[in-house]
Structure formats: structure tokens, C-alpha cells
Prior knowledge:
Strand content: under 5%
Number of strands: 2
Mean pLDDT: 84
Helix content: 25-40%
Distance between the termini: 73 Å
Order of helices and strands: HHHHHHHHHHHEHHE
Amino acid sequence: MMNRDNHMKLKIRPLGVLLAPLMLGLCASSYAAQTPKSDLDVLMHKFEQGKYSKKGADGCLMCHKKNDKVMALFDGVHGNTQQGPMAGLQCEACHGPQGKHKGKNEPMIAFGDESALDASMQNSVCLACHQDGEQSQWHNSLHDMEEVSCVSCHEVHVAQDPILDKRTQNDTCQSCHQSQAGAAHKRSAHPIASDQMQCTSCHNPHGDIGNAALKQPVLNDNCYQCHADKRGPFLWEHAPVVEDCSICHDAHGSVNDNLLKTRVPMLCKECHSEDGHPSTIPGTNQSIQVAGQGCLNCHTQIHGSNSPKGRALQF
């Protein structure tokens, strides 16, 4: 049923070839002259031998076919027998060569906190296939530096990976990023809490060339993907707007209107002192600090103006 003779035509490379350099580099100094003892040592020994099963998944399923979680693999993309791991080395493409697992119960590669492999080793299994496109910057990512494993976010033995579903993606991210999860419920926030927007709308969790894993190299370009009207160019520009949107706004949420870090006019006064400007609204005795929107009552075009009279961003 699971004939693997065509796996070379499909360019599925044996996992031992892909993983052995990484694993051997970590363990070679202590492994060479020893009899394998730990699960990691046994796995290393199996990779050196490279004894892949001739029966492939048929041999695995003789014992594991009654396990619902195992069989759920065939409901998703990784269980497709025409392409991917199940078209090549099948179960062993991810779990390593069978060796003497059957009968003597030698360990196979497992994933998660209880695995004999650390996060980097586990991830090398996934990266054997997934190392292009959005995953190309993984080794520059904070997730990789913090030793987050792929299975911390992704599920393989399922019909649909929850993190790829827009309705459940944010829950997965926020299980670790709790500060951002709380900010999403502030009075002014992007529609993350209602799942109308996802964390990946702005971030690439697999890493990117910009700061904070933003999908665009420059923060402002990230914002302009939705807020194109703020891009300009403007005849009269507001310097902090051109420099960095986050000078004034907190993208994850704020208690102030429009995601502002501080309420107006105090936000404006962080850069603009009172020198040369009256402290009261002309013609009244009302303080400019408490009058409605403060500075924005007059300076309405705060992101920039194209009016010939808009030097003070008033028109």
C-alpha cells in the first residue's frame, strides 16, 4: 500500500543525511568510543546505520493503526501519499530510521517537551522540507534564538493545523505573548481580539529581515499596508510620522484613542514645549490642555498636509 520505491524520483532526502551532520557535530566527541546508552545516543547510532524499513508505513501501522492521533495524519497534508513525506520515506521521513524499533522498541524521533532531541534538532527535521519562502529567515528569528520548537505552535497529526486557521491562530500566539494578548482588549486596539486580524497580518513568526519579525523591512511600510492614506508624500510632513509610527502609536493596544501612547495634548508636548505658543485658546480663557482634543482642534492634519497653507498641519 505504501510503496516507497519512487522516493528518489520525488527528491525526498533520507532524514539521516539531513540530520546526522547537526547531531554528530553536537555529540561526536563523547559518542565515538562509547556504547549507546541514552535515547539520543541510540538515535545517533541508528542514523549512522541508516536502516530504513522496507515496508515503510505499512510496518508502522501494524502497531500504531489503532492510535487515533497517529491515524489523524492521513486527514492532513502531511499524510498525502502522492507528495511530501508519505510519498517518500513515509513515517521515517520525520521520525527517523526504524532500525530495531519493532520488537526491541528502540526509540524513534519524538517531538515536544519530552523528546530526546532539543528544539534545534527537532526543528531540523521540519526544515529539511520547510526552508524556503516564509521560513527562509528562521535562523535569524527570535523564536529560533529562544529555542522554540516548530511543534510549540504547529500540529502535524491533524486535518487542519490550528495556527493556520484565522479563527484560532491568535490564541496560539497569545498563549506565549500574554502582554500583547492583554493589550488587544484595551479600549483602542487592532481587531485582534475578534479575530478580524491576525498576528501574522504584521509579523512573520519564522523571522524576517525587519525588527520584531515584521513582514516589511521598515515599520512604517508595515503600517502602510493598511493605512495607505498616511503614506504621503506630503508637501508639509510631520517628522515623527515619517520616522516611525510607533513614536506616537502603540500597535498592540492603548487606553487612549487611536492607539496613542499618551493622550493629547500631553503626547504633543513631549516634543513641542509651550514656548512661543499661548497656553489658552485665543479669545477664551480655556486651557489648551483640557479643551477637547487639545492640539488637534487646530492641527487637524497631524500626519501631513498638502495644502499651501498647511505648514502648521492645520489644513
